[in-house]
Design goal:
two-stranded antiparallel sheet; about 100 residues; single chain; about 0% helix; mainly beta; extended; 5 strands; about 30% strand
């Protein structure tokens, strides 16, 4: 849910941090796709609270839809969003948001 590691035939092909946005990883030819998911408490990944303080539950594993998409070699799904938290205090926090938009 918060950390996903993906392998194809034991080859590490990608990692995704976060659980609220879709992600795309290029899957080379292969027979076995393995996805390892971790939802352990991590203050660096939103919501950034201890599990005991949350007002909802984390459920492990895949509990929503997953799609494997076959796409043209000319179509790119390069989406990137990075959010950094800085100057955190009780009164304010500075967010640094970095993203890329690619038109193909």
């Amino acid at each position: 849910m918060h950390e996903a590691d993906v392998w194809v035939d034991s080859l590490d092909v990608g990692r995704h941090l976060g659980g609220y946005l879709p992600f795309y990883i290029e899957i080379p030819s292969g027979r076995n796709i393995t996805v390892r998911l971790r939802n352990t408490d991590n203050s660096l990944i939103p919501p950034g609270k201890n599990l005991f303080a949350l007002d909802f539950n984390y459920y492990g594993g895949l509990y929503r839809h997953v799609w494997l998409l076959r796409k043209s070699a000319h179509l790119r799904f390069d989406r990137h969003i990075r959010i950094q938290y800085e100057n955190i205090s009780r009164a304010q926090v500075t967010l640094r948001v970095q993203f890329s938009v690619i038109h193909t």
